[in-house]
C-alpha cells in the first residue's frame, strides 16, 4: 500500500492535471507510446508523427501538468514517477473517451473516422489488402491505416492505443498473451504446408512426420517470431531442434530458397505462390494449422467502424481458411 507521502504526491499530480480545464489527450497517447517504445523517435514512428511533434506534445503536457514527465538516461529517455501516474490514469481516461465516441457513432449508425489496423505479412497480402480496399470503397468517410507487425507487437499496439484492431495468428500450442482490456475473436484457421524441392527425397512421400525432418536444413523466420517458435515446438517429439540454415522474414523468399535446393520450409498455403519459382513441391502429407485471431480494445467494441473492419476480416479469413 502506498505511504501517506506517496499518496499525497499522487494527489498533487492528479490535481495539477485534472483541475485544469482541458488535458491534451493526444499528448497523453504520445507519452504512452514513449513508455511502450522506449524512445521519442520510436514512439513517433509507431504513431506516424515526427519526433519533433511528439516532443512538442509532451512538453505541452508538462506545462499543463506542471511536473516533469521525461528524464534523460544515457542516450535515451525514461518516464518520471509523475509521468507513470499520468499514463496509468490517462489510460482509463482515453478508454472512457473511446467508449463515448463509439457509443455516439453506434447511435448514429455511422461508419466514419479512422481505424488503425495491424497485421502480419501474409495476412496483409491475402486478407487485409482486399478487405481495406472494399471497406473504403463502400464507406467514403472511413479511413484505414495499415501497419505490418509480428503478432506480439500488434497486440501491444492495440493494448496501448496505438492501433485499434489487429489480425494475429497462433501456431499450434504457442500461446499469445492478450491483456484483460483487449477482446479476442477467432475468425479462421490458416493452413501451412511443408515445402520441398521437386527433386527432394520426400517430395513423393504420402506420409511425412517431424522425425523425417530432423536432418533437414530449414528456411525459417528469425528467432523470436511466433512462426519460429512453432517450428521448434514441432520438433519436441524428436528430441532434436530444427537445423536452421537460412533466415528470412519474407515467405516468397522462403519459396525461392527452396526452389534453389537450399532447404525446406513451412508456408501458408496461399501465401505468395503466384510469384514464386516452380521448382518446389508441396508435401501436403504434413500440414499444420494456425489460428487467426482479431483483437481490439473493449472500449471500442461499440464502434460501427471497428465492427465493420472486424466482420470483414472474419468473412475474408473464413473464405481463405484451409
Question: Could you walk me through the main structural features you see in this protein, from its secondary elements to its overall organization?
Answer:
With 322 residues, the protein is of the alpha/beta class. Helix 1 (4-18) packs across helix 5. Residues 11-15, 17-21 and 272-276 have low confidence and may be disordered. Strand 7, helix 8 (226-234) and strand 8 (243-247) form a beta-alpha-beta unit. The protein has ten helices and ten strands. A six-stranded mixed β-sheet has the order 4-3-5-10-6-9, sandwiched between helices. The protein has a two-stranded antiparallel sheet with strand order 1-2. The N and C termini lie far apart (52 Å).
Gist?
The chain is α/β, with parallel strands linked by helices and 322 residues long. The chain has helices at 4-18, 25-37, 40-47, 51-65, 81-108, 121-138, 151-159, 226-234, 251-259, 304-320, and strands at residues 70-73, 76-79, 113-119, 142-148, 165-171, 182-197, 217-220, 243-247, 265-268, 280-297.
Question: Keyphrases for this structure?
Answer:
6-stranded mixed beta sheet, globular, alpha/beta, two-stranded antiparallel sheet
Amino acid at each position: 500500500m502506498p505511504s501517506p507521502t506517496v499518496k499525497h504526491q499522487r494527489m498533487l499530480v492528479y490535481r495539477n492535471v485534472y483541475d485544469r480545464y482541458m488535458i491534451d489527450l493526444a499528448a497523453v497517447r504520445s507519452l504512452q507510446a514513449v513508455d511502450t517504445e522506449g524512445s521519442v523517435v520510436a514512439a513517433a514512428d509507431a504513431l506516424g508523427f515526427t519526433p519533433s511533434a511528439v516532443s512538442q506534445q509532451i512538453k505541452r503536457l508538462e506545462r499543463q501538468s506542471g511536473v516533469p514527465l521525461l528524464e534523460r538516461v544515457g542516450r535515451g529517455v525514461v518516464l518520471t514517477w509523475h509521468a507513470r501516474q499520468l499514463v496509468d490514469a490517462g489510460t482509463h481516461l482515453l478508454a472512457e473517451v473511446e467508449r463515448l465516441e463509439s457509443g455516439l457513432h453506434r447511435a448514429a449508425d455511422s461508419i466514419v473516422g479512422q481505424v488503425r489496423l495491424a497485421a502480419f505479412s501474409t495476412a496483409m497480402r491475402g486478407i487485409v489488402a482486399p478487405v481495406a480496399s472494399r471497406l473504403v470503397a463502400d464507406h467514403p468517410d472511413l479511413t484505414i491505416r495499415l501497419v505490418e507487425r509480428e503478432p506480439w507487437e500488434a497486440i501491444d499496439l492495440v493494448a496501448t492505443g496505438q492501433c485499434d484492431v489487429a489480425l494475429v495468428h497462433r501456431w499450434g500450442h504457442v500461446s499469445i498473451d492478450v491483456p484483460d482490456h483487449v477482446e479476442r475473436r477467432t475468425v479462421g484457421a490458416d493452413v501451412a504446408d511443408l515445402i520441398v524441392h521437386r527433386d527432394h527425397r520426400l517430395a513423393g512421400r504420402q506420409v511425412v512426420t517431424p522425425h523425417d525432418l530432423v536432418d533437414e536444413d530449414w528456411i525459417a523466420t528469425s528467432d523470436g517470431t511466433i512462426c519460429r517458435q512453432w517450428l521448434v515446438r514441432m520438433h519436441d517429439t524428436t528430441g532434436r531442434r530444427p537445423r536452421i540454415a537460412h533466415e528470412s522474414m519474407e515467405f516468397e523468399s522462403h519459396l525461392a530458397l527452396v526452389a534453389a535446393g537450399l532447404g525446406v520450409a513451412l508456408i501458408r498455403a496461399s501465401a505468395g505462390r503466384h510469384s514464386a519459382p516452380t521448382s518446389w513441391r508441396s508435401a501436403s502429407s504434413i500440414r499444420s494449422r494456425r489460428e487467426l485471431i482479431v483483437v481490439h480494445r473493449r472500449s471500442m467494441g461499440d464502434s460501427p467502424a471497428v465492427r465493420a473492419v472486424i466482420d470483414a476480416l472474419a468473412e475474408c479469413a473464413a473464405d481463405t481458411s484451409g
